[in-house]
Amino acid sequence: xxxxxxxxxxxxxxxxxxxxxxxxxxxxxxxxxxxxxxxxxxxxxxxxxxxxxxxxxxxxxxxxxxxxxxxxxxxxxxxxxxxxxxxxxxxxxxxxxxxxxxxxxxxxxxxxxxxxxxxxxxxxxxxxxxxxxxxxxxxxxxxxxxxxxxxxxxxxxxxxxxxxxxxxxxxxxxxxxxxxxxxxxxxxxxxxxxxxxxxxxxxxxxxxxxxxxxxxxxxxxxxxxxxxxxxxxxxxxxxxxxxxxxxxxxxxxxxxxxxxxxxxxxxxxxxxxxxxxxxxxxxxxxxxxxxxxxxxxxxxxxxxxxxxxxxxxxxxxxxxxxxxxxxxxxxxxxx
Length: 335
Ligand code: ATP
Ligand code: MG
Known about the structure:
Layout: E1 4-9, H1 17-33, E2 35-40, H2 42-47, H3 53-70, E3 78-81, H4 86-95, H5 101-106, H6 108-121, H7 130-133, H8 135-145, E4 150-153, H9 158-175, E5 183-186, H10 215-223, H11 244-252, H12 257-266, H13 271-298, H14 300-328
Parallel strand pairs: 1-2, 2-3, 4-5
Helix pairs in contact: 3-13, 4-8, 4-14, 8-9, 10-13, 11-13
This protein binds adenosine-5'-triphosphate (ATP) and magnesium ion.
Magnesium ion binds at residues 10, 202.
């Protein structure tokens, strides 16, 4: 039996290069070896975008196209929409008794995200909703509904997987051994920094290069990237380790990286030329993905059909799990 892998992505924007290097290159490989589910987590996206349903709906399609463009193959893996699986919402209600409010507030991912919102939106970012604080519970429902065993994530998600494991252990202790404790699987580069130097590139942080960005947009973003502030003139030597352009060269520029580093240190490379070289290399990597995107943009009915069929298949699995859960909780009245 193949192991089950579940990945959730929030439809809050397009996939970015943080996803690509931090996670999604691996998603493509996993689908050959594992039983893979890719969840477009629209219910979770609503926890902090409930007042903007258009944004979430638009990004469901954007994300589905991104997933197909990077090589997720619907004949190998199941791509589905969270909101079409009411069993996940029902599991969330049962699991919500198994976690305390203080534990949720102490969850490092929730804490960081609340702090980021505060930095972006001022005091308004501090007033978090019940749904937002509780999203780790709903994420535990996402994973366990499919009996997910391996969960490929970026580093920012580790505390959420730990939260899920705690819920599973508690459930199994009280009601009997029904659920599987999932394991987080980190990629080689578990956290890609943002263009602004922020510890994490994120869709909701406004610091991302998206896989679908045009050359013009990438040029504008890279040209504004933070470099060593001590380098004022073109031939000043600089420290590449505090330069975001060098940071991305390490991801995109293969064998050229050593030259970038030594010329930067020696003061024989200007920042503008260095940025231009990076822009070319980013565009080279993104070109095949963008070509596939064009196809799906022109065949949107195909995308809808893939989502519909994937959601139908996913629901069958989730409803089998819910049945077992309810039986264990003595809620199987009329079975
Ligand atoms: P949002 O800002 O809306 O939360 P996001 O950019 O964090 O968006 P998610 O949909 O929350 O993206 O995350 C999808 C997956 O990609 C998760 O496993 C997450 O850990 C991973 N991921 C997201 N950003 C990065 C990053 N900068 N580096 C590595 N992995 C990342
Ligand atoms: Mg996130």
